[in-house]
Amino acid sequence: MATDRFQAPDYYLLDDLLSEEHKLIRNTVREWVKKEVSPIIEDYAQRAAFPKHLISGLAGIGAFGPYIPVEYGGAGLDQISYGLIMQEIERGDSGLRSTASVQSSLVMYPIYTYGSEAQRKKYLPKLATGEWLGCFGLTEPDAGSNPGGMLTNYKDAGDHVILNGSKMWISNAPFADIAVVWAKDEAGDIRGLVVERGMEGFTTPETHGKWSLRASATGELVFDNVKVPKENIFPEIKGLKGPLGCLNSARYGISWGVIGAAMDCYDSALRYAKERKQFGRPIAGFQLQQKKLAEMVTEITKAQLLCWRLGVLKNEHRATPQQISMAKRNNVNMALEIAREARQIHGGMGITGEYPIMRHMMNLESVVTYEGTHDIHLLITGMHITGENAFGG
Amino acid sequence: MKILVCISNVPDTTSKINFTDDHKSFVSAGVQYIINPYDELALTRALEITEKDGGSVTVINVGDASTDATIRKALAIGATDAVRINAAPRDAYFVAKQIAQYAKQHAFDLILTGRESIDYNGGQVASMVAELLDMPSVTNIKLLQLENGVATMEREIEGGKELLTCPLPLVGSATEGIAEPRIPNMRGIMSARTKPLAVVDAVDVALLTEVIGYDKPKTRSNVNLIAAEDVAKLVTLLHTEAKVI
To answer: Which of A46, B79, B135, B171 sits between 20 and 30 A of A137, alpha carbons compared?
Structure first.
């Protein structure tokens, strides 16, 4: 890929709403992405390889558990910092952001929120440094939008439980050291437990042939009579609210993250439109191109405002799952639309790896589906405003 | 080893440069500020030295409170502490006087600056500070090693390089090659919150220079492309329009 000349749009001077520390964190991650991610990411995506060497760098910039308290190895930052970190990483690549989201919101968050003190001390510091990577097992072949229909279960066997079942579409699975797994106990309640690599009967086959998130490793979690010590079960949490709490945190991060992908597409399209000449003038001078670019920056600005406000609410512990759903749905769709329009502005060049557009666009096809599909989030809003449940029968 | 690194707060290299209508001031609205890149090289080398041999790195900036963000970044990169001389920098002599005044009271072994700031490109502060402190001055240092109180340096010169030694203390200005800048990590950012940043009143300095005005370079005129086979047209245009033949 050509040199990363990214310049972030800030049409409404939203930087004024950020603290100096927010800006320092954001700019640090931006600098890191320019130096470490942009030069290599296209190659890794083309080869469908995960850039493992970036894990220590991700830990260094605080991408693993930024809001987890310092005593457990986190950075103790606020939610806006978390959002900005996700935005900048996804500006580089959604796959890399997915790795960071999973580690932070789907692995460290539940261990911190639902775990015992022993579980926190055992896992969190090593996850924060990237020494251990985690993954999150909720989705199953026959339980996607309806996680309550999961079949994975465990049975009591004295000082341990016997876990059976399988999970799929699991980011980080092929190389994760631990998995936070949601399974039904003998009473049929959904419980969370930590499964460690090396436990007999636990395997993580990789999912091949993806056209999306190619620089991120995805796989399955297969549990064949896995003996899991009871001390690995989260002591308190029962029911769907456990995994949904994690998803809230991750969806919040995604709402910010996709702004990064959108900004990268817009920035590239704007520069290309100014440099590309047809009919004796830059194509940026033609009304149809201006319409695309003007709508892009308008939508990015709206998404930035939405996220900033959501971040303030989250810092005050007032952000509702429904508000987070709205931001995730709106912003991912916004980014996807911008990627498609930016692809058109780039003409034929837009389909090549010389520009980041097609990679972002393909990545976003996953992001619009995972962590609650575009349609499911609409139904969450629908149910919230009407009081009528449109899920299932 | 006590090292003082002088840092300037300058517009990001991608900033749009505009001046006020009277052409006397830079329009800073909407501009991102960064540590002057040459100063950042000096800071990085200073940190490498103290990490190896022990000691402290103090960063100093002459500026108003708006430069605190830049100073915090220097602390996040690894500086031990920071000083801000609370005054808008007026010219090189003003800045050098403030730095020299502070350095006089704190006995540094080494004072480093960048070779110039990338905004006004004066490149004068290091030599002025040295003169005011009666210390040796070496500019454009691309390699710097310290051993037994002596600095061994390499300078880039026209058509080659110059190797020289100088006993400490000295004032030096850094250029490319002296170090690779570092991206701060989250631990650094977090520790920067609590590192000391002292704000010191400026001393009075007579104003020796006055800016009459700034102007941007003329915009490039349009390129007139002539087909390679149309040499006659090229010759005609060089004669009638460019008037160079």
So the answer is: A46
Q: For chain B, which residues make up each domain, given as ranges?
A: 2-217
Cα–Cα dist B108/A84, whole Å: 39
Q: What is the SS3 assignment for A193?
A: strand
A265-294 core/surface letters (b: 16 or more CB in 10 A; e: else):
bbbbbbebbeeeeeeeeebbeeeebeebbe
- What value of ipTM does the predicted structure carry? 0.84
B29 touches chain A (CB under 8 A): no
Domains of chain A, with CATH numbers?
14-128 (1.10.540.10), 134-232 (2.40.110.10), 241-386 (1.20.140.10)
Q: Do A62 and B185 touch (CB under 8 A)?
A: yes
Chain B neighbors of A58, CB-CB under 8 A: none
* Alpha-carbon span B175 to B40, nearest angstrom: 10
| Residue count of chain B | 245
Does B145 lie at the interface with A, CB-CB under 8 angstroms? no
Write down the residue that tokens 């009271």 correspond to: B105
> B192 contacts in A (CB within 8 Å)?
24
Please indicate if any CB of chain B lies within 8 Å of the CB of A70: yes
- Site from A10, A13, A20 to mutate, B interface, most B CB atoms within 10 angstroms: A20
pLDDT in tens, chain A (393 residues): 567 899 999 999 999 999 999 999 999 999 999 999 999 999 999 999 999 999 999 999 999 999 999 999 999 999 999 999 999 999 999 999 999 999 999 999 999 999 999 999 999 999 999 999 999 999 999 999 999 999 999 999 999 999 999 999 999 999 999 999 999 999 999 999 999 999 999 999 999 999 999 999 999 999 999 999 999 999 989 999 999 999 999 999 999 999 999 999 999 999 999 999 999 999 999 999 999 999 999 999 999 999 999 999 999 999 999 999 999 999 999 999 999 999 999 999 999 999 999 999 999 999 999 999 999 999 999 999 999 999 876
pTM: 0.90
**Chain A residues 27-46 with CB within 8 Å of chain B:** 27-28, 31-32, 35
Give B2-217's CATH code, choosing from 3.40.50.261, 1.20.120.80, 3.40.50.620, 3.90.550.10.
3.40.50.620
Which chain A residues are within 8 Å of B190, Cβ to Cβ?
Answer: 70, 75-76
Distance in angstroms (rounded) separating the CA atoms of residues B138 and A364: 54
Write out residues 56-115 of B within 8 Å (CB-CB) of A.
Answer: 68-69, 72-73, 76
Q: Establish whether A371 is a catalytic residue.
A: yes
Interface A–B counts its CB contacts (< 8 A) at 40
